[in-house]
Design goal:
The protein is α+β, with helices and mostly antiparallel strands. The chain has helices at 21-32, 62-71, 119-130, 148-152, 182-185, 196-199, 256-264, 276-282, 311-319, 323-331, 354-357, 366-380, 398-413, 424-432, 450-454, 471-482, 486-503; strands at 42-46, 76-78, 84-86, 89-94, 100-105, 163-167, 170-174, 218-224, 228-233, 247-251, 270-271, 288-301, 336-337, 388-393, 417-422, 438-444, 506-518, 522-523, 539-540. The strands form 5 sheets. Strands 11, 12, 13, 14, 15, 16 and 17 form a 7-stranded mixed beta sheet that branches. Strands 1-10-9-8 form a 4-stranded mixed beta sheet, covered by helices on one side. Strand 2 and strand 3 form a beta hairpin. Helix 9 (311-319) runs antiparallel to helix 12 (366-380) and helix 16 packs antiparallel against helix 17 (486-503). The longest helix is centred in the last third of the chain and has 18 residues, at 486-503. It comes from Macrococcus hajekii.
């Protein structure tokens, strides 16, 4: 799962679905344009902040992934709407019981330093993520594999993990259960190979172009931390002839208005997320690309922290939030109120959307919010709510969003909430350390299915930072993996969402929608429901 976590740098970027008409038209225009290529194939972008890491084992956020996905290459890559396409793998053979995958690598694969890339590099990379000593961000993304969870949790042996390089070109992977979407799972960052010699140079091997070795379309050129980062075409990449860009330069400008000014002046070629207050000024622009985004903006509770250890208090806070007003008056970019956790975009065999087929949870109801708060306080033996702090990163619209939530809780429940903002990279550590009562976070699905986002809150998920656990919830998720009838599988996932929304370790606010600006002379940028704009096959024209 991408990582299945997706910690986003701006709430506007964490928004949901599958491409609309305008984005499809733009994609078609990119493919059929006949202008001459520009002499200088350099793309200028903005990350919005410092990437947390470029080591696939520790990446947890879309800022990092935007770079990582361009400098590493897996067995599969994401095609349209996340559908897997063979990448480093030449072919894959699946056993009759669908539990054993045998991958045959392409001939002549190389690392960016010229070393041969073999199946052993994939085995090493995957087992490194699972190694308890690594303390990787998302080892649970590999728990589909036989013996993986036991090894990672120190209950099993390395030799029992179902990952084995039979020879330099053959990787054999054994699963616990047949998983129909396994090829989609292994498009994620935890499944990238890493170069053992590079890793063994020290813990900061991925922080400098001098030591980072990768295998993707691009490689790291330089990284001036907290200022800029640049990647350059990787001449060792097996499919290098399809890569038109020579270089991609990233700024790290956090202020969205400054970012927009840089775009207007021509210093940036693409704007990932148009600021809400500016969107109305560019709504008729040919450069605007709007598309659904399979994601959800949330606030997470640490259920071990008072007073949000009480379920009724958590529910009261949720009923006190006017989500429709939030998306209309704050985000202003086509987002939808999140009356549930799984976003729009997942269709069943009859074309029904999982969200439309599910319940509506926590529609705005101040009276019910007050009732639940009173009941929760009584259960805790309290006369009023103790101090509550909401933590958020300050980039983009996130601080303003937190202030609006603060105002709603004051107006509807009479409670005072303090806001604490942190710089993105620091905030990620705060979140991972569970140092919060209530904290902003956004999640993005790795592929269009309810399972990857719901599985974030399984008891064994390494991306569950809420301290919430529920055996019935875990059982439903496990049953869904074994259920072959898709209608029954989706019903199990609806039941799981019911539990999640009742217990409420997280507070969903909005489902996503993305509004990007792309210069008309930049062609071949892919936009879809699952990621930031993909520039890998982009080309600049005169």
């Amino acid at each position: 799962m991408k990582k299945i976590l997706v910690l986003l740098t701006a709430l506007l970027v964490i928004l949901a679905g599958c491409g609309d008409k305008k984005s499809e038209q733009t994609g078609q225009k990119d493919q059929t344009a006949s202008k001459k290529p520009a002499k200088e194939q350099v793309l200028n972008l903005n990350l919005g902040g410092e990437p947390y890491t470029l080591d696939p084992a520790f990446a947890s956020d879309t800022t990092s992934w935007w770079v990582i996905d361009s400098i590493y290459s897996g067995l599969y890559k994401k095609g349209k709407n996340g559908e897997p396409e063979l990448e480093a793998a030449e072919k894959v053979d699946v056993s009759p019981d669908k539990k054993t995958y045998t991958f045959t690598l392409k001939d002549g694969l190389k690392w960016s330093n010229g070393d041969n890339l073999t199946a052993k590099d994939f085995e090493y990379g995957w087992k490194r993520v699972l190694d308890p000593k690594t303390a990787a961000y998302s080892p649970s993304a590999l728990y589909f594999i036989e013996g993986a969870e036991a090894y990672n949790t120190k209950k099993g042996k390395l030799e029992d993990v179902g990952i084995h390089a039979k020879d330099d070109k053959t990787l054999v992977v054994k699963l616990k259960n047949p998983i129909s979407f396994f090829p989609k799972v292994i498009t994620g960052a935890p499944y990238y190979p890493v170069n053992k010699k590079a890793v063994e140079k020290g813990k900061n091997w991925a922080a400098s172009a001098d030591t980072l070795v990768s295998n993707g379309p691009f490689k790291l050129k330089n990284w001036k931390h907290n200022d800029s980062l640049a990647i350059t075409k990787n001449d060792q990449y097996f499919d290098k002839d399809k890569i038109k860009l020579s270089d991609v330069n990233f700024r790290m400008v956090a202020d969205t208005n400054t970012e927009y000014q840089l775009y207007q002046s021509g210093d940036l070629d693409l704007l990932v997320s148009v600021p809400a207050d500016i969107l109305k000024n560019v709504k008729d622009s040919k450069e605007l690309v709007s598309y659904d985004n399979f994601s959800v903006g949330t606030y997470s509770f640490n259920v071990n922290e008072k007073p949000v250890d009480n379920k009724k208090i958590r529910q009261a806070l949720s009923y006190a939030i006017d989500r429709q007003s939030f998306v209309t008056n704050v985000l202003k970019g086509g987002q939808k109120p999140a009356y549930g956790y799984v976003s729009y975009g997942v269709k069943d065999s009859e074309g029904k959307d999982f969200r439309d087929d599910g319940k509506k949870y926590y529609e705005y109801d101040p009276a019910k919010a007050k009732q639940l708060l009173a009941e929760g306080l009584k259960e805790e033996g309290l006369s009023q709510l103790p101090k509550l702090t909401l933590k958020t990163n300050g980039e983009g619209i996130n601080k303003k969003s937190a202030e609006v939530i603060q105002e709603m809780l004051k107006k509807n429940l009479g409670i005072d909430v303090s806001i604490e903002t942190q710089e993105w990279k620091t905030y990620i550590d705060t979140f991972k350390q569970k140092n919060f009562q209530l904290a902003r976070m956004g999640w993005n699905g790795d592929f269009l299915d309810p399972y990857p986002v719901l599985a974030l809150y399984a008891s064994n998920s390494s991306s569950n930072f809420t301290n919430w656990k529920n055996k019935k919830y875990d059982q439903l998720l496990e049953q869904s993996l074994k259920e072959k009838d898709d209608t029954k599988r989706l019903e199990l996932l609806h039941q799981a969402e019911d539990i999640l929304m009742d217990e409420l370790p997280i507070l969903p606010v909005n489902f996503g929608y993305s509004n990007s600006l792309i210069k008309e002379n930049v062609k071949g940028v892919k936009t879809d429901a699952l990621s930031r704009p993909n520039f890998i096959y982009a080309e600049k024209q005169e």
